[in-house]
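DOMAIN: structural biology
WANTED: fold as tokens
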Amino acid sequence: MKIGADINIFVIILLALIILIGKTAVQGQKNFKLFYRVIVFFILTLTAGSFYYFTEGATLKGFVLFSHFMMIAFHVFGAISAYSWFIFVLHETEDNLHCNPSLKNFYILPLIFQCTLLISCGIFYYDEKNQYLQGYLCIFQYLLIFGYLFAGASISFIKYIKEKRYAQQKNCFFLCLFSLLPLLGMGIDVVFPNLNSILPFLVISIVMQYLNLMKKEIFQDPLTKLNNRREFQRHLVTVTKTIRKEDVFLIFFDINDFKSINDTFGHVEGDRALVMIAQILNAAFSNTKAFIARYGGDEFAVILKKEEPEILSYLKKVDASLVTLSASLPYNISLSVGYSVYGEENANTIESLIQSADKKMYWNKEEQKKTICENESMASFHSIP
């Protein structure tokens, strides 16, 4: 067996196992579907390349035609793999370009152009001995793949610079890194053509991105897409070690009368309320480096640096958004809030920091209940003839 085909088969088995294990663990999520599409087309690329290795130099007419077809498939599937990666990056970075139908048609134009070049034999051709030779337009094949990967890296990097939310910023960083690794492999191949280093760099990028996606599944709340309690605890430990502890500011939120929403309108509506609260918190703290998590049930947590300017203004944004949201719902939705600062009011440990914020939140909840009862009593008093 030829070395190239041997390596390809090993990589194909590895990637097939990733899809098999991943689909068993995670089902139906769009980001995984888009990522699996990248892997599938990459597997098809390697498969076509492997078949070509077996038929290279064959003289029988049937094998010659099959060899030509496999080389065309190799180029087409390779380009589609790069295109699929670009679409995956757009989705993961939540880029508005991904939502524009007209632009989606524009993204596929380079693929159509490449197919035209393949038909014209400008990218590659065969000599009289059935040996593969690069054509005078082969540079366009490299530019096509390079373009998709570089565009993905650029979008990820721009989002990384602009994004302030911790989790999204980290995700953009890895997307940029994993887009650049194959480009590094392509660059090495240009300088050292015999190394064939692009394949290991591609495999490293795919495997690392798969691990990154699975890590997100472990530390992300599946309903709200916020960080879950496990990631909250891990981040709180990390942040108290890396910055001055006195700068850690913790806010707890709890949905008032959430049980009545579930009981009256059903659990589906209750889940929708949780998602809407998550969106409100993301929007309110979008210009900060806040770490937002679903702490459990109907509780949410936000970790901020104490010097973050105008923290109260962000809470006012939350209140304003809740008022607007409640006006469009058949029920009123509001939050109880409690906060604590590391080192203040005996909050000298992570446990006491959480307890202090939690205690203040429930105190705020009781105060809101008293206010509602007083208002109802006054309304009843005024209604007495």
Notes: The CA atoms of residues 124 and 135 lie 4 Å apart. The first strand starts at residue 124 and ends at 126.
